[in-house]
Every structure is written in C-alpha cells, then in structure tokens.
Write a structure and sequence with these properties.
Layout lengths: L4 H12 L9 H5 L5 H28 L3 H27 L4 H6 L4 H16 L2 H30 L3 H11 L7 H12 L6 H21 L3
Length: 218
C-alpha cells in the first residue's frame, strides 16, 4: 500500500459500501413491517455480539505496536462497554429480561460477524483490521439511524429504548482522526497490506448476513 491512510479509508468505504437493497431487515423496521419477534431477536443477538466485540477489541489493542493503534482499539472497546448498558434498555423495551437474554439460542448467521472479528483479533494485522472495521462503521451507523427512527415511529420505543442505536448512529466525537492516525502509523512502519480489503469485504458480508438472517423472522 502506497496511498495515505486517509486515501485508503476513502477507497475502502467506496469499494466496500453495501448495495441499497442488500440489507433486508432495516427497511422493514424503518417502515414498521418487521415483527416484534425479529426486533427481540435483534436485541438478543446484539447482546452476544457486543460482549464478544468488546473482548476482540481489547485483544487487538494488546497486539498493537503503535500507541495510536492501541489507543484506537482501546477506544472501541470502551465504546462497546458503554453500548452494553444501552443494549439492555433496548432488550427490556423489546420484552427481554436478563434471564431471557441468557436463555436465548443464537443463530449462526447472526454470530458469524463477531466470530470473524474474533479471528481477526488473533490473526489480523492491526493496521489492516483498523481500515476494515472503520470502512464498515459508515454502513452500521446508517443502519442504526434507520432502526432508531423506525422503532420510534412504528413500535412506540422511547429514547431509552432507542439509546443503543442512537449511540452508534451519532458521529464519533473525533471523526476519523484516531483511525487515520492508527493506520498511518502502521503504514509508515511497513505493516499495511492488501489484506485490509479482504478483511473489509468479509466484514461487510458478515454484517449483511446478520441482518438478513434476522429478516427471516420478520
């Protein structure tokens, strides 16, 4: 890779952006056509994902040679921790208490994403993983914004019940700068590879698999 970190991030977002109609669940929630069963399953599946991703980001932080990269992944882990409390509020609004979350049987199509992120935490070059996950954040944030709007308009969820999606829909306080600093430090040290786009393509595919598996319940 010879481009700058900022250029690579722009390229990754463009090349890896999902097609307009690839996600089958989010439009259903936005239009009020998804079942409450699917919405409750969304809460339960996300509960497992957030806990897993929190650990994955901490592992990635521990593997980073550059302080900027370590700070980036530590920040992501902190965000997952904050999101977990909001997720419990979403689950409660969906009719799930702690026991129901514990008893829930996850679906393989939904858990492929966190499983791959855990694989990346152990095997991926952190510079490449940074680029891949940030490229996916734009799509994830847009999905969360649409879901929050749909939950309020069609399902009677209040601000507390929507706080999980509001959290991820909001722009990051520092924008892309922490990720760009992390990627640039890796590139300067010769650690960036073309695998970043392979990682990003698979992350985006597993992201869509998550939503479309839940769409079968809608």
């Amino acid at each position: 890779m010879t481009a700058s970190a900022r250029e690579l991030l722009t390229k990754a977002r463009t090349e890896l952006a999902p097609g307009e109609h690839e996600n089958r669940l989010v439009p259903l929630i936005a239009e009020g056509k998804a079942s409450r069963t699917a919405i409750a399953a969304l809460a339960a599946e996300q509960h497992r994902i957030i806990v897993s991703d929190w650990r994955s980001f901490l592992v990635l932080a521990s593997r980073c040679a550059d302080p900027a990269a370590g700070a980036f992944f530590s920040g992501l882990a902190a965000g997952e921790g904050l999101a977990l409390d909001n997720l419990r509020k979403f689950a409660a609004a969906s009719g799930l208490d702690e026991q129901a979350l514990a008893d829930y049987k996850p679906m393989a199509g939904c858990q492929a994403y966190p499983s791959y992120l855990a694989w990346l935490a152990l095997n991926g070059e952190p510079t490449d993983v940074t680029l891949a996950v940030v490229a996916n954040f734009s799509a994830w944030g847009n999905y969360c914004q649409a879901v929050a709007t749909g939950l309020r308009q069609h399902y009677g969820f209040d601000d507390e019940g929507c706080s999980f999606f509001d959290f991820f829909a909001a722009p990051a306080p520092d924008g892309d700068e922490p990720a760009i600093a992390a990627v640039q430090a890796g590139l300067d040290a010769g650690r960036g590879t073309e695998a970043a786009f392979e990682y990003g393509r698979l992350i985006q595919s597993y992201e869509l698999m998550f939503w479309n598996t839940l769409a079968e319940l809608a």
